[in-house]
Amino acid sequence: MTGMPPFVAPAQFVDADAALARVREIYAASVGHLRDALHGYVAGTVPASRIRACYPFVRVHTDTVARADSRLSYGFVAGPGTYETTLTRPDLFASYYLDQFHLLLENHGVALEIGTSVQPIPIHFSFAEHDHIEGSLSVEQRLLLRDLFDLPDLGAMDDGIANGTYVPRAGEARPLALFTAPRVDYSLHRLRHYTGTAPEHFQNFVLFTNYQFYIDEFVRLGHQAMAAGAGSQYEAFVEPGNVIERAAGQPARPGDELGAAPPRLPQMPAYHLVRADGGGITMVNIGVGPANAKTITDHVAVLRPHAWVMLGHCAGLRNTQRLGDYVLAHGYVREDHVLDEDLPLWVPIPALAEVQVALEEAVAEVTQLKGYELKRIMRTGTVASTDNRNWELLPSRNVLSTPERRFSQSRAIALDMESATIAANGFRFRVPYGTLLCVSDKPLHGEIKLPGMADQFYRERIDQHLRIGVRAIERLREGGVDQLHSRKLRSFAEVAFQ
Question: How far apart are CA 163 and CA 150, in angstroms?
């Protein structure tokens, strides 16, 4: 076998479907070449030369700032010049790529160039979903692997574009998307590892939680939706291990039988209420802490969801709050520190009106409260997130500043460990975000979590809180996703892809 598949020279396309077909063609040939070579290598055939295959790319060139009128915050380049990005997994991103191609063609009236890039596909990113090839390699074969195939190169997958720190070299095209193909592939593999489900099952609306109790209720809701059959808007429910339950009356599909519940849950298990259009709901238990919150949102972001929302428990910081009250975040104090290198603390994280309204209206709808009565159980204000779970134990005497003082000066009304990270990463990656928390304790006022109290609280509130989150997502979907992608999230010289 030759070292590389046939090179596909750049060709111009004025039809989005034809452009996507060429992307599929290049990607299939490249990945097929790598898989064939690797399977031969596992069987004992050492290639005569280095094996390499490259990603497809899309490029657009415009000589004018003029573009068609568009109220969208994406779908156009920032000004005259050449822009490009590498592409991966056209099977997974087909509808996304089509949308971006259509917008570029409509807004600029210039052709798209599609061809083979010079960016190698790491061999690990060519594996099929159920390939476990490395386990079949001897120690000697693993050592030789780097000499024969391209391995993941971290230099090709950093977040400089999203962070606004990337500067193209002289003569180099400007970026067309936030993520390069290797960066996307890296996150797709991480999602499998952390959530126990394939990226194909992730939906365009994501709920994050920091308690398994919410997941238990979401699982109950998922099975209930499947039992409804034709009366449900969802066609499948997927659990870790890619265990798929189809809605009553729907036949199993090829590949459903491959799913199997794992012997133990992954670190951040994900569950998916699947709609045919991808507009369903994914829920992930991210566990506790800002590191987990950053990790999962770093990777979910490459799927370009329409929104993500945090539903979880928090400490109430005001004496007037009661256990079970809701907190709708309209601002964040970031004492989580995990994003300090990527998003400076001087960057404000604004509330997004569309998400705020959907959450508030969902609370009113589910609780059947309005006006003053609604304000009795829900308060809008600043949420602080910390990386120190035991912040209450820090010394408070003879120190210039304490967490309690800072939270008071910031007018914070609630404290958790994840919400500010999730919102800040939404801002950073241009993913609409929101936060609705439920007060589970009040450490500043002597109301700490006790086992019996917590059990009763969980029983009374989690079902309602989850139903509010689901209803908010449905409202966002009903309002049209084009309304969600706010100009607030776009920078001066923004990439064209959503």
Answer: 27
CA–CA separation, 179 and 383 (whole Å): 30
For residue 173, give the amino acid letter: A
| Tens-place pLDDT, residues 434-491 | 999 999 877 655 555 655 555 566 667 889 999 999 999 999 999 988 888 888 898 8
In this structure, the dihedral spanned by the alpha carbons of residues 313, 317, 322 and 326, taken in order and rounded to 10 degrees, is -50
Helix 290-300 vs helix 181-195: angle between axes, to the nearest 10 degrees?
A: 130
Nearest partner of 434 among 445, 422, 452, judged by Cα: 422
Using CA atoms, how far apart are residues 437 and 418, in angstroms rounded to an integer? 11
Range in 84-93, 183-192, 240-249, 480-489 the model is least confident about: 480-489
Query: Strand order in 112-120's β-sheet?
Result: 11-13, 112-120, 54-62, 81-86, 174-175
Nearest-5° angle of CA 37, CA 97, CA 303? 80
SS3 category, 161? helix
Q: Specify the pTM.
A: 0.93
Q: Which two tokens stand for residue 326?
A: 């809701």
Q: Who contacts 64 (Cβ-Cβ below 8 Å, separation ≥6)?
A: 80
65 CB-contact burial (10 Å; exposed 0-12 / middle 13-18 / buried 19+): exposed
Q: Does residue 137 sit in helix, strand or coil?
A: coil
Over residues 291-323, the pLDDT tens digits come to 999 999 999 999 999 999 999 999 888 888 888
- Contact criterion met (CB below 8 Å) for 411 and 382: yes
